[in-house]
Amino acid sequence: MSDPILGLAMLGLIIVVIMLGFPTAFTLMGLGMMFGFAAFYDPSQSWAANKVFTLMVQRTFGGMTNDVLLSIPLFVLMGYVMERGALVDKMFYSIQLAFRRVPASLAVATLIVCTFWGIASGLVGAVVVLMGVIAMKPMLNAGYDTRLAAGVITAGGTLGILIPPSVMIIVYAAVAGQSVVKLYAAAMVPGFFLAFLYLVYIIGWALINPKVAPKLPPEQLIVPIPPTIRFLRENYASNMLLATFKALFSPAKLLNAPVDAKLSFGKIFKNVLAALTPLILVAVTMWGVWWYVMIHQQSAKDALNVPVATQVAKASTSAAEPVEETLVAIDATSNNNSKSKEVEEDAPLVALDAASGDDPTEAGAVAEADTGPPENFELYFGLTCILFGLLLIYYYIKLDEEQFEILKLLIESVMPLGVLTLLVLAVILLGITTATESAAVGALGAFILALQAGTLDFERTKQAVFLTAKTTSMVCWLFVGSALFSAVFTILGGQSIIEKWVLMLDLTPIQFMLLSQAIIFFLGWPLEWTEIIVIFVPIFLPLLAHFNIDPLLWGTLVFVNLQAAFLSPPVAMSAFYLKGVSPPGVTLNQIFAGMMPYMFIVIACMVFMYIWPGMTLWLPKFLYGG
């Protein structure tokens, strides 16, 4: 066989062997060593002198020195500490109470918790199993259709691998040599938009067919009110905002109240802060937006207008620069086909976006042009402030004792984790820290939250660390195997023959996008996302430059597309995760049936991304220019 045919045989064989159940990482290494030995075989030399062994060492060292991969164990540790710390039970209870009057309230609460918890942990299996234990039985006991209950848990549990911080995005960035920070920014809006489409589907199905999600009985709609809150209403005011302020300035009644309703002055002050929390959150959010857009970016624009020695220096002071670790090429897709060059040195990463061209002055000019507030920002900002103000006024008018108790539960269960997650994302996106440094902050914050909740002991900590080491080892071996496999595949000419075949089709960029995403979609049926990213995604990457396709847009489409890999039988891991913790009456076919509609929602989301690329590219362009 010729070398290209041998490469294609290697690619086909890897699919067969993985589907037979062999470990992916060691299968990649084994086939890479075997086919690489054949490619470099020289009868005149000893078998020990075969260059495949040198290639194996070089590719392994390339993965070991890739600083981006350091964030994987830290983010994984963050997720397992939160999962082992059992921080989600109270969160589900409080969110369920907050949405108790919404159609399919239990399913809506499950989706929100899955989304929020997935963002914080980034672990699909842990989220699906945890929500299966917490939410599956209550939904079935309330008379919910099994397909609805199973579908919302499996689909919602996969969102954590899409919405940053995400391990999948880090793996893709390392494979493709792309910016983790820019990929995070690009995936943010599509991820939340997909969650919104899930929410619309759930509520729409419940409205069209109320039998799939019956209304909860009246006793489950009642919010338990503690004696202290009841005492506030009876002795101060029915509106809790007024009652807490009256209690703050006239605390005598509470200080002399019966034992079960008595409050110290410190707790009275905490009630006031709890009542003001929605106002504080809105004010801080709007101030942060105003500061970043109007003050920070204007300062950066003024700095760009200062005469400097070169235009390159101007580019270095642009409004926001993502802080990145050094990217190391771990595959061979960007290398030449020369065997000797493949073994002797790693090819440099090739920038595929316009802002990273050969001329640094062009990048500086782009950054300068994109710096500054958007047109009509003040108008939209003012209208947004008015809208939030009206919503706050309406909320505080309706703030009775039930709403106040729900607000306190949400603050206790959701706010600490929310603040930690926002902090981790903000410091990455604003260029304050690298992804690795941010992951370290997140892991430390997860330990603090779990210890504060009193749910993390030595045994659970040991389990979290063990699972982190296990997951990280799997990912590291996977990178070593994929790096060797990709290098040998390119050396044999497999990459070249695929490129020639695609170019012979004379496709338009849109047609290539559709073809590549369709292939990845169908690969998601038998394979997991890890195999798709490390084996097949590198095949398409060199072709993006030919079709002038933005790698951020294409990569984000891959992230959304790979949601189907968790929802498509026969290798739909979410289904098997849920089946393991479901009641005995729930069958695998029912879980599959519940998951299938969400696959079509994933396709609908991708259609929106095709039609409106700004959904993906707006945020990275706004933050980093280009």
Compact summary:
The protein has 626 residues and is mainly alpha-helical. It has helices at residues 3-19, 24-39, 51-64, 71-84, 89-98, 105-121, 124-141, 146-158, 167-176, 180-208, 218-221, 227-235, 240-249, 252-255, 265-304, 311-315, 339-344, 360-370, 377-397, 401-413, 415-429, 435-453, 458-491, 494-504, 509-523, 529-546, 551-561, 563-567, 573-579, 588-611, 614-624. It starts with a helix and ends with a helix.
What key attributes describe this structure?
single chain; 626 residues; mainly alpha; 72% helix
Walkthrough of the structure:
There is one protein chain. The chain has helices at about 5-20, 25-40, 50-65, 70-85, 90-100, 105-120, 125-140, 145-160, 165-175, 180-210, 220, 225-235, 240-250, 250-255, 265-305, 310-315, 340-345, 360-370, 375-395, 400-415, 415-430, 435-455, 460-490, 495-505, 510-525, 530-545, 550-560, 565, 575-580, 590-610, 615-625. The chain starts with a helix and ends with a helix. It is mostly helical and about 625 residues long. It is built from 31 helices and no strands. Helix 4 runs parallel beside helix 22.
